[in-house]
Amino acid sequence: MCRLLTADRRLYHQTEPWRHPEGAIFRCNGNGTASFAKQSSRGFVLRLTAATMASTEIARQAGEGARAVPLSGHVGFDSMPDQLVNKSVNHGFCFNILCVGETGLGKSTLMDTLFNTKFEGEPTQHNQPGVTLKSNTYELQESNVRLKLTVVNTVGFGDQINKEDSYKSIVEFIDAQFEAYLQEELKIKRTLHSYHDTRIHACLYFIAPTGHSLKSLDLVTMKKLDSKVNIIPIIAKSDAISKSELAKFKIKITSELVSNGVQIYQFPTDDESVAEINSTMNSHLPFAVVGSTEEVKIGNKMVKARQYPWGTVQVENETHCDFVKLREMLIRVNMEDLREQTHTRHYELYRRCKLEEMGFKDTDPDSKPFSLQETYEAKRNEFMGELQKKEEEMRQMFVQRVKEKEAELKEAEKELHEKFDRLKKLHQDEKKKLEEKKKTLDDEVNTFKQKKTAAELLQNQAQQAGGSTTLKRDKERKN
Amino acid sequence: MSEAVVPDAMVSPAVGGLYGEKAGGPMLDFSYVGIDAILEQMRRKAMKQGFELNIMVVGQSGLGKSTLMNTLFKSKVSRKSVLATAQEKIPKTVEIKSISHDIEEKGVRMKLTVIDTPGFGDQINNENCWQPIMKFINDQYEAYLQEEININRKKRIPDSRVHCCIYFIPPTGHCLRPLDVEFMRRLSKVVNIVPVIAKADTLTLEERDFFKKKIREELRANGIDVYPQKEFDEDAEDRMINEKIREMIPFAVVGSDQEYQVNGRRLLGRKTKWGTIEVENIAHCEFAYLRDLLIRTHMQNIKDITSSIHYEMYRVRRLNENNTMVAHANGIPEHHLTAHEM
Predict the structure, then answer these.
(1) Is the ipTM of this complex over 0.85?
(2) Considering only Cβ atoms within 10 Å of each terminal Cβ, which end of chain A, N or C, has fewer?
(3) Would the pTM count as exceeding 0.80?
(4) Do A147 and B9 touch (CB under 8 A)?
(5) What order do you get walking across the sheet with A11-14 strand by strand?
(6) Residue B56 in 3-state DSSP?
(7) What confidence tens digit (pLDDT) does each residue in B18-50 have?
(8) CB of A347 within 8 A of CB of A299?
(9) How distant is the Cα of B191 from the closest Cα of chain A, in angstroms?
(10) Under 8 Å between Cβ of A9 and A24
């Protein structure tokens, strides 16, 4: 007895070979699988159920871990997807696109065309010294869905003479977004619910329409990015290539990507409702797109197009370019899958590498699980030890420097003292000389004064003697 | 390097408005970008992944817990239906028995886990009978936390956290017993509690209203915040809806898994000599409100509150515990430690 679930979600259980209304003949293999003997003209998808699938008709059976239980009435939890969707609508969505490509390939125009709006910004110059990333966030709304769209542009990519380091700033940017999310996730008090997710969900890689093959810069960059982000390669300005050249170009690109081991994003084919369209689109990669925000009147409608003297390239015409396919795949069919892949594959890989780098392991060599707490403690002790060592070192250095400075100052002081002493001595010598001179001068003055006094005395005496003689004569006369 | 800019040409109504105006061609609408297709994508993903719900039922034996579970999910999900040897003896301590079921309705698959607590409140001395239950709930949080901080972790961490705990109040008609108050006070901090009045067909409508009012007063007086919690209302709309619900809790429910013929229809009910109580009739009992709250409208909300509030609180507590233990070991005063562990 086996049960089959067909693509139209009908459940069959049979034992003998039987015919499905669509025309295929099935046979039960008795071990839970079935094979079909003839394929119907429609070639629909057959899906076998596992034991966990339940329906209202099947009897209950004991499974491992969980039993499948039939419901005898309407319970109402089929509204769960609606509840989930409503909550998400209230919360809003966010989507981040990274556009990588040389200047002048029409990245900004394509974004404008994709989202039917004019994002701000003017064309960048070609003289940037390095590659920088500029990101802008926009809030778009369509019916009741609010989307926070972030478009990140690589400015100056491919413009330098030496392009060896071009990819580095892109990889750093992507890693920085992962790091920010990781930090938020590791916080103690965290608010993941309202966190604005800036991780890049899709990377549109713009290939220049040379018609020959990929440039080595493209290959190197894509190889560095393929494990970090979902890469969707597109051929920009594809109205420069003719149809036959385009087919050859696409084949060449795909083979080069495969031979270099570049993992580009494959649209998922496991969900049956979109498997078909996704697998056809996978074969059309890379998409050849044309972007335009100008409208031209064709027939009686205004369509987005690029007008040339020899004709008009309509952006949304599938025979002219793959723009419609890109929009279908990027936005209308796989946006959620892109976000999921980013979170579950690329982010997890980054997280694992980062944590392992920091020295955390899940199990130690005896394969007993490491308690995270022990690892924390060990790490913290190590860190503290290092800090202390550094502090010691700095202290030593400081002390040494102080000593040196002190010695220097002492030297200077000594010098100054000597100089002072010398000057003082000089000054004293001078003073002494001056004093001697003064003394000599004084002596001379004294001698002169003595002589002068002596001379005056003599003179006086002489006068007196003369006077006294006169007096004597007078006296004598009187007498 | 990023700024939130609303492009001036655009803003919301432009696209939506153009959508209606371009009536030129029948198919392609050139201004339609297709962002809202993400809702469909999410729905597809949700259907593929399926949902998980873990409900715990707590109450004395004989209050109709198993029957209520069976009625809620319209199938034999209770412990007694599953275990071949249904234990008639009341266990000596509180045991925790958890059974998982896979149910599917209209393509939506759900893994329902019913956690039963036989032995609760049945002993003579019921002190600390909530401890095994609290330990169980915290163990589930711990398991989730361990998986989350693993380096190699699974794509989808299996969620075994208890989303909702239905507490059965015996229909005495007077007021809450000390055991009820104590249990709800402790557990409302770690899990969403939905109190229900069990076997409500023993109360008349007036008695029921009086009982409910009394219970609400006591809950308020003791500071017990049951689901839907006042503090987690997000906006005015939520508050309005939740206020209406808060005016009705605890729901007075009657459970039954047997069908009877009433007015020509087969309905779930309890047949007595004086009449048949229809389980899904809101004039008879409030089971329909409980089912709508739990399953049809607030299931996602319940899970969100568990994962973003209760679990986060546990995580903060647990990681801080680590911090303080390490701090005391190293002699570093707590205020020197930063929030970042790494």
Answers:
(1) no
(2) C
(3) no
(4) no
(5) A11-14, A2-6, A46-48
(6) strand
(7) 333 333 333 344 567 778 788 888 888 888 888
(8) no
(9) 19
(10) no
